Amino acid sequence: MLTIGIDPGTATTGYGFVQLTQNGELELVDFGVITTPSDMPMSDRLQQLHSQLSQLLVLHRPSSGAVEKLYFQRNVSTAISVGQARGVTLLALAEAGVQVAEYTPREIKQAIVGYGGAEKKQIQQMVRTLLEMESIPQPDDAADALAIAICHLHSMPMRGLLEDSS
Questions:
Q1: The domain spanning residue 9 has which CATH number?
Q2: Is 141 a catalytic residue?
């Protein structure tokens, strides 16, 4: 099963594609960031994000996706900007027919490291280890997106059980 994890943002959106193999191992497929220039009008930045993300979805055809939930930030304009990027991301996933799950930063940390208060470096190191990478994935937004994809792959069996019981 191929999953895309997305760490949305207007300036930088991280993405990571992780495959869960038949024998239950995680395999890195692709990762990176989509960036938009800060001097570009917001509508154009969102259109560029949508277009590039849609191209990645067509290229890789994931069966599921996971996006980081928006958490309250002190800077309201940053929260609004991230919310706009999340909306465009969710739209692109829906248009591609990709089932989507959303996770809080605490849920992601818990799934990757086993502790919801883990530091960013701990998460990055665990992502490197789980995906058998030579070094920590860069930039940070891409590493976060890989963590989100891994979180989803680790959480899917429990989510399935919960949905079956309701």
A1: 3.30.420.10
A2: yes
